[in-house]
Amino acid sequence: MSLETMQPNPAWDSASYEDAVDTLGAHNDELIYTVWGGDWCKDCRKLLPDFGAALEAADVPADRIEEIAVDQDKEGPGIEEYGIEYIPTIVVERDDGEEVTRFVEDEDVPPAVWLAREIEDALED
């Protein structure tokens, strides 16, 4: 099931987030983004449309983005396996399943910026 909140925000300005888009784009064929969220969730509605736009601007293929809708009890596929407590949560993994980083709900910068910074630190040493 896909999330309406992952539909890219048409007003999002990729030029304002060039560094994040460049980093996401540099790894667009080697990382998988799994997004847990709910269309009913105000934090998801606030954060995920811009993240969807960032993934689109970075040309991340659709088959590298998995959207998992959870219910209002925050139950859904992979919740226990990945230890998901808050939404949105975005887990970034390599093809072999190794977790690179994760964004959880209330970081102090937008998901694309936060994840790009973490991906750079993890993969571009």
TrEMBL record:
Residues 1-125 form the Thioredoxin domain. SUPFAM superfamilies: Thioredoxin-like (SSF52833). It comes from the Archaea. Coiled coil: none annotated. Transmembrane segments: none annotated. This is Thioredoxin.
